């Protein structure tokens, strides 16, 4: 056994393992970018929300304001940390897209290296397999290249679980310093995404409920709570001072927009949150995942800190099933759970598989299982992930970015634009925007699904143009059918336009009061009649 371990270390060292993981992360990320560029001609982001973060980062760097519309502070940024990390690109005049993709790549590398270190007592080859699976999992690469905070949040969570296992408050350390660091960890996770507070809450309850000296536990719990509060209070005060609520506008706006989904049975919503995490090679890791969890449950004494992340995962799914039961964009809200499935599932696979077993059936089935999993991760990356990413980027560019550039070129600088998707519009057009999704205009949240009130809100806002997908929802179908909104341009007019959705092409409507579009038609007719003699002459 000792000689086998020595031979392994001679073949694979810790630095060599980490280099291999970094190379795999870079290759996966670059693959997505190259496929998108050479197939669609774009180097960009697959979500309009990524442009929202760019606007917040730019305004923060240029004016010091936490605002989407300059001079109008708002809390439409879900993450506090992400715009702070992007802002240096604007301060240093570095290409913001390149900078953001580098941040995403660093997040993916951190996630892969963290997963490889999660269970330090295992062999280097096993940890290499786990790290490679994380580096090549197609959702995680998509998140890293999305321009969003999802990849960063996922990496922070992985390293939080690594740190917690090294400083298990249940059996190793309930000292003041460890408690303080735990609280600060929780605060950072919350600033990355508000639901990061769940991870801290579970770890805090675990440490408080563990057996041991009651005074030590209480002291530890108080100090860790204070550490968390050091970051929680400024976060809550920032939100309250700007919007009058303690959470970002996105917390309320997204829930309100998708309230119709609450009519589905809760159990079905919960299953959907979990199901979306298994789309990929990880579906074959379920036996390994169950075996690995069973191993830790049977272990005596039970190492609860190794099972604790799954308490967080179940709570995470339960929370989204209850308040925001959406699975669009490849389940981006559930993506942070995927590393648990991959990390525990790969370790279980390696533990269960017997590629050197004497019995042919066991040996062949083990080899087939391992080879299939090892093949499917890169296959899903290249055949599912990269094309999906390319289509997503193309959709945003064709619909949102082209519309934003049209607005910039064809409207006056002081025109007010009412829109549902404000990211690219805010970044490229620099117009004053009325956000019908409620992220930058929170006053719309309370009636955003009210057909009539939304129409009147657009009119009363003084908007010159309305920019929406006409079939986004029944509310928007009603909105765009109002005679006062006159279509003047749509993304479908762009040369080579390809539709990627069933919500219609993004359309620009000019807002006409009075008799609405009829007045505009008459005006255009009169102009053409008077212009005809001049043209003939």
Textual characterization of the structure:
The structure is a single chain. It contains 22 helices and seven strands. 45% of the residues are buried. The protein is mainly alpha-helical. The strands form two sheets. The chain has a five-stranded mixed beta sheet with strand order 4-3-5-7-6, covered by helices on one side. Strands 1-2 form a two-stranded antiparallel sheet. The protein has a domain at 411-536: D-Maltodextrin-Binding Protein, domain 2, CATH 3.40.190.
Characteristic key phrases:
22 helices, mainly alpha, about 525 residues, 7 strands, 5-stranded mixed beta sheet, D-Maltodextrin-Binding Protein, domain 2
């Amino acid at each position: 056994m000792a000689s086998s371990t020595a031979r392994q270390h001679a073949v694979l060292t810790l630095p060599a393992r980490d280099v291999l993981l970094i190379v795999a992360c870079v290759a996966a990320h670059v693959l997505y970018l190259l496929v998108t560029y050479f197939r669609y001609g774009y180097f960009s982001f697959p979500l309009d929300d990524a442009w929202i973060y760019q606007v917040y980062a730019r305004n923060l760097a240029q004016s010091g304001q936490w605002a989407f519309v300059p001079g109008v502070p708002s809390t439409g940024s879900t993450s506090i940390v992400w715009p702070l990390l992007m802002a240096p690109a604007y301060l240093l005049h570095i290409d913001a897209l390149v900078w953001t993709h580098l941040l995403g790549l660093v997040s993916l590398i951190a996630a892969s290296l963290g997963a490889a270190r999660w269970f330090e007592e295992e062999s280097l080859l096993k940890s290499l397999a786990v790290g490679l699976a994380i580096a090549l999992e197609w959702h995680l690469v998509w998140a890293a290249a999305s321009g969003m905070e999802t990849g960063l949040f996922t990496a922070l969570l992985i390293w939080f679980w690594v740190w917690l296992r090294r400083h298990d408050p249940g059996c190793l350390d309930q000292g003041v310093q460890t408690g303080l660091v735990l609280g600060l960890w929780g605060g950072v996770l919350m600033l990355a995404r508000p639901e990061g507070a769940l991870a801290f809450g579970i770890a805090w309850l675990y440490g408080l409920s563990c057996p041991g000296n009651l005074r030590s536990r209480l002291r530890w719990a108080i100090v860790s709570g204070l550490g968390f509060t050091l970051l929680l209070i400024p976060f809550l005060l920032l939100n309250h001072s700007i919007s009058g609520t303690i959470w970002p506008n996105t917390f309320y706006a997204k829930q309100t927009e998708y309230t119709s989904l609450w009519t589905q049975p809760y159990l079905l919503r919960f299953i959907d949150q979990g199901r979306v995490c298994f789309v990929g090679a990880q579906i074959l890791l379920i036996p390994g995942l169950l075996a690995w969890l069973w191993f830790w449950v049977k272990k005596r004494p039970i190492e609860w800190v190794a099972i604790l992340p799954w308490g967080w995962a179940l709570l995470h799914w339960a929370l989204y099933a209850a308040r925001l039961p959406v699975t669009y964009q490849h389940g981006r809200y559930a993506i942070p759970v995927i590393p648990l499935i991959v990390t525990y599932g790969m370790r279980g696979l390696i533990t269960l598989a017997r590629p050197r077993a004497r019995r042919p059936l066991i040996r062949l089935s083990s080899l087939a299982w391992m080879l299939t999993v090892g093949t499917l991760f890169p296959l899903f990356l290249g055949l599912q992930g990269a094309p999906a990413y390319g289509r997503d980027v193309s959709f945003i560019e064709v619909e949102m970015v082209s519309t934003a550039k049209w607005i910039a070129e064809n409207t006056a600088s002081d025109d007010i634009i009412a829109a549902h998707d404000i990211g690219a519009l805010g970044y490229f057009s620099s117009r004053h925007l009325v956000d019908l999704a409620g992220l930058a205009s929170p006053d719309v949240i309370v009636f955003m699904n009210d057909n009539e009130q939304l129409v009147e809100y657009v009119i009363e806002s003084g908007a010159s143009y309305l920019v929406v997908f006409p079939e986004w929802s029944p509310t928007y179908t009603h909105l765009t059918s109002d005679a006062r909104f006159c279509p003047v341009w749509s993304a479908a007019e762009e040369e080579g336009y390809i539709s990627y959705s069933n919500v219609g092409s993004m359309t620009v409507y000019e807002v006409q009061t009075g008799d609405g579009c009829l007045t505009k038609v008459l005006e255009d007719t009169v102009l053409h009649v008077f212009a005809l003699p001049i043209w003939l002459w």
